[in-house]
Every structure is written in C-alpha cells, then in structure tokens.
Design goal:
By secondary structure, this protein is α/β, with parallel strands linked by helices. It has 15 helices and 13 strands. The strands form 5 sheets. Strands 4-7-10-3-11 form a 5-stranded parallel beta sheet. The chain has a two-stranded antiparallel ribbon with strand order 1-2. The protein has a two-stranded antiparallel sheet with strand order 5-6. Strand 1 and strand 2 form a beta hairpin. The longest helix has 15 residues.
Length: 352
Amino acid sequence: MGTLHFIKTAVVVRDEKGKFVGVVDFFREISRVRKFVTSYIGAKAKFKFSDIVGNSKKLREAIRIAKIASKSNSNVLILGETGTGKEMFAQAIHYEGMRKRGPFVVINCGAIPRDLAESEFFGYEPGSFTGADKNGRPGKFELADGGTVFLDEIGEMPVGLQSKLLRVLQDRSVTRIGGVRAIDVDVRVIAASNRDLSSEVEKGNFRKDLYHRLNVIQIKIPPLRERREDIPLLVKHFVEKLSKKLQKRKIKIDDSFLKPLLKYDFPGNVRELENIIERALNICEGDVLDERYLPEEVLSSKIDVQSIEEVKRSALLKALKETNWNISKTAKILGVSRPTVYRLISKWNIEI
C-alpha cells in the first residue's frame, strides 16, 4: 500500500447555547489538495503539436521525435536557441502524452535566486529558515506529482543544486528543507537549454551524470535562419492571430514586407518575428502591411537571399524530392491541395 499523506483541518462544534461540545477533524488526502493547487495556479499545458507552424525538414524532424517522446515516460532534453519555441514543444509533449491529465509545472532555472532555488524546487517545513511560511510549503516537484516538470534553461542551474536534482531523479522522492521524511513524487522531467550542454559538461559547469540522466530523448529545434522557407507561413499565422488580439480588420501582406524578413537573420528567432509582426500591426494605418512598418535592423539586413517565388519553388522541389515525387504526400507536407501542386509544377516548369 505505501504511506498515505493527509492534510487535517478541525471544526469546533458548539451547542445551541454556544457551549463547546467537541471537535470534528477532517482528513483530506494530500494528492487531492495538490491537484486543486495546481489547477488554481494554472499549471497546465495549452499548446498541441498542431500549433507548431512550419513545414521545413528540420522542424518536421523535431516534431517527429517530440511525438515519439509524448508516447513515453522517459526524460526529455530540448535544445535550441532563445526564442525557438522550446516551451511550446514541451507543452505539446505533455498535452498529447500519457500525463495530459496531470499538472504541467514550469521552473525557470535561470530566474530563481540561488538562495531560494532549493526551497522552490523541493519545498520546506515550518520554521526551516527566517521568513519561511509558518505552515511550510510544497516545492514544484510535489505540485507536479502525476504530471510533468519543465526545467527551462537547465544550464543555468547551480552545480550544488544539480546533485540534489540528480538524487530526486534517481529516487523519485523529495525531502523538504528542514524535513527528514522522503515524499514520493511521480513526475516526468522535460528539460531545455539554449546552451550546448555537452560543452558545459567538458568545462565542468554541468554534471555529466545529470546530463546523461536528462538526455534520454533529445530534441533539437532549428533556429529560424535555418528554416527560412517557414517565414511566409509564420508571418501569415502571426498576422491572423495578432489581428484578432488587436481587433484589426483583415490585413493583407505585401511582398515588400515579406522580402526583407527573408533576408534577416533573426537572432531572437520566432519570438522576435512575432514581436516584429505585432509592432507592425500596431502602427499600420491601412489594411496592407508593407516595408514601411518594418524596423530598421530588418530593412538594413545585407544577406543575399532568393526572391519569395524562388523560396516557394525551392520548398516545392525539396518536398517533391523527399516524397519521391508523390503529389499527394507533397501536398500534405506543404499544406496545399493536389491541384495547387500541379499548378505550381506547371507554372515553374518543373519536370516530373
């Protein structure tokens, strides 16, 4: 059976004259309380794989591996530059996985002050340190019981805390600060980093044993500059999404708006593109987005790239070759109809 943990509350019972006659104790299993707390604080995933926009080969490969991960309970390590969508992938893995009914708890390892990190992760007992809550507090791992913990920017975690995390992953239990009792936790860990963790291991900044413990299923998300053919799709997606948010009427996208974006390197990746689109929609005075609404750093980009038509033609050719010239599969990859594929093949004089 194992040990069951309860939270006890008491209600004083008085007679009609207000005289004390007794006390009624109520015991609630702590797992039910945790579920209520995680629901209350909004600890759940909202993104699905269908929310990830793009048809490039590298992105499709990342999604393929992520879908495999969603059917497993193994730890996952997601690697990618800032702004590539690591948390979106993590949420999709949880949302479409075996733990989708459980909580999805995010811990940003780079944003928690070092002196508070251990209590944030593992919780603390009453009176453990100055300023501690008199009732104690569960940590994020306890709150994630039955679900997923997403450790964002795991490469920023202090080395001292890494050893304690490794122990939790091995023992599947946590001990609160100031506590002596181990509390069992059933969590799946998805970690993410914008650093090359294997290099961090060599430098002594990241524990080798923890790296191997986390790196069971590895997913590499490509930067936007390595999947430029997805930029037109992303621009269309963000214009539609943000137009609703900003209560804008239907906005058209001019080629003069798209072409500079295809030349730009996007150091901030998809997140930067979304911000550029939101800025443009805010300052757009008509119903057409053109180059006037792009920031200077985008307009001054010097990279020599193909025209929009050439990018689309290259994407079609790539899809045809990958599918061994299967029209139905090519149409599915590009998100268009079979007649559209035939029309583009004819338009661009592609020999089948």
